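Per reviewer request, we include the raw input and output of the structure prediction for the construct analysed in the revised manuscript.
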Amino acid sequence: MPPWSDFEPFIVSGLALGGVYALSGVGLVVLYRATGVLYLAFGAVGAMGALIAWSVQQAGAPGWVGWVTCVVFAAVVTLGYGLLFGPPLAGRDPLVKAVATLGLTLVLYGVMDLLWTTSGGEARSITLPTDNGGFTVASIQVDWTQVIGLAAGVVITVATGAFLRYTKLGTAMRAMANDREITATLGVPVRKVEAAAWLGCGVLAGVAGILLADLVALDATTLTFLVVSSLAAVLIARLRSIAVTFAAAIVIGVVHDLITPITSLTNYRDMTPFVLAAIALLVVSRRQVISRSREEA
């Protein structure tokens, strides 16, 4: 077992990753509650947006132009998909909805492999200006990008909670999560509410793509499948609570990175989201069984 000093830097990186997973998870939860669609293409959209941002920067454009391009691309693709396929998917089974977005993932991944092939290709990276500054806490160097990653998760979680609770659009989204048909009969513009949810999820996908490309790596495969960590947090929250999603995402990010210094476990750290989600779901199921047994007794 390595000394504790070897783990300390990974606490910081884990918190930053957890924050990005949290904002991703919040976007997935809100979209699911508003439309019933589990957006499996979240990671692929962010990954392609980040690669486009890198290409824009390589063409000589300022860095901020690439970042804006990434967010706009992710928002447009997600909104376009929602407007085109959202209505036909509205009445379908949850499995059909999930598989449909998985199809979008495969299409985007194929395009990325065609345009930005990784076999023998040049090394790519997105570097944010916030990487150059920071501060030290107990001999641990913390850069501003890591702070932004964690802060983004906190801000998005709090802001989304307030939005859902205190705004008319947020109230409409919560109502649609409870009963879509009744909400429509009450005069709520269901299509507009769904479009807002798709657009918001797309914007978060773009932001997550930029941050993860800097914090982890600018690689199509890596960024596409990092959505698994966010999905694990969402499953732990049972696709309902954004607060639980945030807490679960932070735990997943920290545990994932703390395993890195342990040589015998490093190669298995990508299993962290699955293991934590399985444990959480088993605990929840056990509590439900116990509570039902007590009620029946």
